Amino acid sequence: MAETLLSKQIKSHKVALIGNPNVGKSTIFNFLTGLSQKIGNYPGVTVDKKTGNVNLNGETFEILDLPGTYSLFPNSEDEIIAHRVLNHTKIEARPDYVLMVIDSSQLSRGLFLATQLIDLGVNLAIILNMSDLAEKRKIEIKTYELFKHLGVPILSTDARNQKGLDQLKSLISERNFSKGKALVDIKQVIPAEILEKVMAKFDLENPYQAYQMIRFGAKDVAMPEESRIWLIELIASSDFNMQEAQLEETKLRYKKITDIVSQIVVKKEEAKPKSKIDSLILHPVWGYLIFAGILLLIFQTIFTWASYPMDMIDGLFAQISGLLIENLPAGPLTSLLAEGVVPGIGGVVIFIPQIALLFGFLAILEDTGYMSRVVFLMDRWMRPFGLHGKSIVPLVSGIACAIPGVMAARNIANWKEKMITIMVTPLMSCSARLPVYIILIGLTVPDELVLGFVNLQALALLSLYLLGIIGVLLTSLLLKFYLKTKEQSFLLVELPPYRFPRWGDVGITMFEKSKTFVTEAGKVILAISIVLWVLASYGPPSRMDQIREESQARLENVSDEELIASIEAETSSLLLENSFIGIMGRAIEPVIRPLGYDWKIGIALITSFAAREVFISTMATIYSIEGDAEDELTIREKLNQQINPVTGEKTFNKATSFSLMVFYVFAMQCMSTLAVVKRETKTWKWPIIQTVYMSALAYLMAFLTFQILS
Amino acid sequence: MTADKLPLNKTGKILEIKTSPLKINLMELGFLPGKYITLHHQAPSGGPLAFQMEETLLALRKSEAELILVELI
User: Fold this and answer.
1) A219 or A473, greater pLDDT
2) Which residues of chain B are within 8 Å of residue A381 when distances are taken between CB atoms?
3) Alpha helices, DSSP H only, in A328-444?
4) Which of A47, A261, A500, A623 has the least CB density, counted as fewest CB within 10 Å?
């Protein structure tokens, strides 16, 4: 029994899935692996390593989804992965089989990568996917002829419509892969004796592997130092130009492919005619209006749809906390669980509806082919700020939540443009700032119309959003001059044919992104929440005990319920004031006084460092509001009554309120975003720079606002 | 002339791809001498250009299109 189990484990075969972008590779991956997908990391790059298992006839196959690439010449971080996996220096780390997906209507481009794989000598099978598209375009491929030319198994599928997928499963389970016939003689490009030297040194099977090693081995950080130096010296000692060699290979390869394609493809129609939809979507005026309309629709939906599950999650976690307090013996451990850990987890989980929905919409826009049209429309307007057309996706997402926005920045190939995008996305006013804005605007801006139709409060809110966008653009400009890269920025994107979204794939994307967020960012948020809880719950013992004793003494002689509630509220306010966090609030008072804040606002600033919306609940605690702390009206009334003991004026006058709003426009104040930036940049350097920069900017702008208005 | 100079909806035959670090990226996508490209869409104010090449619609910046030498047909 044990023996059979063991032998089954050994029989796990690794299959790498590879193909050009937009060929339906992820549909095939999702079909094979379903929800068994795991996302891991490759060392040194931000590209996700997607794997999943499929069980066929009692054998397990591990499918590795490689990022889409046009060739084995790595241009972006994504493409380096394909090269590194296939040419891994440790042979046992290489995949056993490679499954290449080709878009049937783009045969020659697909064959470019396919023939490179054949030359590399991998065990290959080719899937001619999207046969429906090819049929529609009246392109007929003689698959048997193609098989005779390449020498590897070929399967025709239409994954979107579930055609040919059973045959795909049996192809994998029968391990119907084979090494084809080399097509390009690489010795025409690189001197044979050099190739032989490299083959001997690294124990390689064929000259093409040697060529790949020469081309990229020296740059691969995963290679041992000694081998890299050996390669660099070898290249330096011989007189061929690597760039030229690669161009020469490309020419030879395309010549072969053109020759093959002319023999196997019957095409009845010439180039594709201009699409009517694109004439509208890419129109210089209509295109932008449609884009604005779609954005409006998405935000409207996210704000209305996500609020229901978010309220439910909020209520659920409050209930769990309540149950814990009621049912567990009182003590620090219960308190930590009920007031630190559970709300901490709740603070992570509450973002899931927004993240899932936003990624759902992004997946639909991506899947239909619309997103690359937006890149086309916006590139011109993003570039002057050091951003790329692709930056529009993270920035737009940032209005809902910076977390999925920062995660979406990884599609940008150029390092500098990607970094700028990640750094500025949190400056977009996200939905967590909204409650803070709304309360403060309600306090200070009168609810009246100007010019007969513009609501003053709405105008104030809009101005805050615009202020955030100005912050994004100016910061981008600043970073454009500060960050340096040798990489050239370019835009070469395919605008794929419009297609209906595949709901299963959209669902899997929503699930996967939420899972990644919870597991990766969740750890950090939880840790910070616990630290904040400790700081807010404990203080110098002598003072804290004194407050508790006094409160006990006062409560003993009171029986009126309302009075008890008010004494208890006063006590918790006093306890917070004297806790470590309260002491910190007082300590920073001199620093924040020029912004118009007292120490109470200082405490709220510190606690809301973990998440902006905490500002409201902290204010509620500090100003000892009885009853429901989430009721915004109650908080607003309470805040409105606060009088500054020194000046005799309202604490939340126009100057202080606007200063606070401006502060929240620019301040980082979000642990979750920091955690995600750390995850995406793989270093603490960038989240720290970002926090310092945004805090300094927030301070400066709030200072100016207060000084001008007061 | 270069591909960015193609009039809207006109087709050009690729003669050559100028040498630059992007040459390989262009060739990889199928921009090869002998192929026909048609300028289908233009983003306003000097924005990207969208060329139809056989079955594919490809978006390029003006600076990238300048690397493609074409002959108007």
Assistant:
1) A473
2) 47
3) 332-335, 342-349, 352-368, 370-382, 392-400, 402-408, 415-424, 433-444
4) A500
A447 CA to centre of own chain: 38
CA distance linking residue A319 with residue A297, whole number of Å: 33
Average pLDDT over residues A25-42: 79
Q: What is the mean pLDDT of chain A?
A: 84
Residues of A in contact with B52 (CB under 8 A): 271-272, 274
ipTM of the complex: 0.96
Nearest-angstrom CA–CA distance, B39 and B12 = 9
A290 touches chain B (CB under 8 A): no
Chain B environment of A140 (Cβ under 8 Å): none
The predicted pLDDT at position A628 comes to: 42
Q: Which of A254, A282, A492 sits opposite B25 (nearest CB)?
A: A492
Strands A139-141 and A97-103: unpaired
Tokens for A12? 């796990």
Q: Helix, strand, or coil here: A129?
A: strand
- Please give the structure tokens belonging to residue A17: 């899935």
- Residue A531 contacts residue A584 (beta carbons within 8 Å): no
Of B24, B44, B46, which has the smallest distance from its Cβ to A247's Cβ? Answer: B24
Altogether, the residues listed in chain A come to a count of: 710
Check if the beta carbon of residue A191 is closer than 8 Å to that of residue A238: yes
Cβ separation of A274 and B45 shorter than 8 Å?
A: no
Of B30, B47, B54, the CB nearest to A379: B47
Q: Read off the pLDDT band of A623 (50, 70, 90).
A: low
DSSP label of A484:
-
Chain A residues inside the 8 Å CB shell of B42:
284
State the smallest CA–CA distance between residue A284 and chain B in angstroms. 6
User: Which residue on chain B is closest to A248 by alpha carbon?
Assistant: B24
pLDDT of residue A2: 42
| Tokens standing for residue A498 | 């419009």
Minimal CA–CA distance to B49: which of B23, B12, B16?
B12
Of the candidates A368, A517, A522, A684, the one whose C-alpha atom is nearest the C-alpha of residue A48 is A517
CB within 8 Å: A272 and B59 = no
**pLDDT tens by residue, A627-677:** 444 444 556 777 777 776 667 778 788 899 999 999 999 999 888 888 889
Structure confidence at residue A377 as a pLDDT band (50, 70, 90): very high
Q: Which amino acid makes up residue A363?
A: A
